[in-house]
Design goal:
The protein is of the alpha+beta class. It is about 20% helix and about 40% strand. The strands form two sheets. Strands 1-5-6-7-2-3-4 form a seven-stranded antiparallel sheet. A two-stranded antiparallel ribbon has the order 8-9. The protein starts with a strand and ends with a strand.
Length: about 150
């Protein structure tokens, strides 16, 4: 899944979408790990939180897009690069899903949702988003592994 849509700040939100009683953070935490990330157009640096850096196999919490993507399923690389390029050229919302292939052979599903803004000012534009890492058993060979 690779989606991008032009951001329209004047579009009304769905009724009740900001009603906190409709959200269940405990349920989300039971089924996934989620963390925010930010990126600046001027530097090209993506800033991750601790778990995201760890799950991406990165030694530091700051990286570039290509370093971030090197653990992703190779068949998704071109689509993800295209998505980020489009988002950098036009304020937009985007999402993608892929699989992180870890050095130990485990496969971790990943969902990413984000938005870009300030594309018209290449020195001040940015992206922000969230990574969602589902917690469930994945079949690795004949064994089952539980990602925590």
């Amino acid at each position: 899944m690779f989606k991008i849509a032009k951001t329209n700040a004047t579009a009304p939100l769905m009724p009740g979408s900001l009603d906190i009683s409709n959200h269940d953070p405990e349920m989300l935490a039971q089924f996934s790990v989620s963390e925010t990330w930010v990126a600046g157009f001027s530097s090209g640096v993506i800033r991750l939180k601790e778990s995201s850096a760890l799950l991406h196999g990165l030694p530091a919490r700051e990286c570039g897009l290509l370093s971030l993507m090197r653990c992703y399923d190779p068949k998704d690389h071109a689509h993800i690069l295209e998505l980020f390029e489009q988002a950098a050229m036009l304020s937009s919302s985007f999402c993608f899903s892929t699989t992180i292939i870890m050095s130990n052979g485990f496969r971790q599903p990943l969902f990413c949702m984000g938005e870009s803004n300030g594309y018209d000012d290449a020195y001040h534009g940015s992206m922000l988003g969230v990574f969602v890492f589902p917690r469930f058993k994945t079949n690795v060979g004949n064994e089952f592994a539980r990602r925590q």
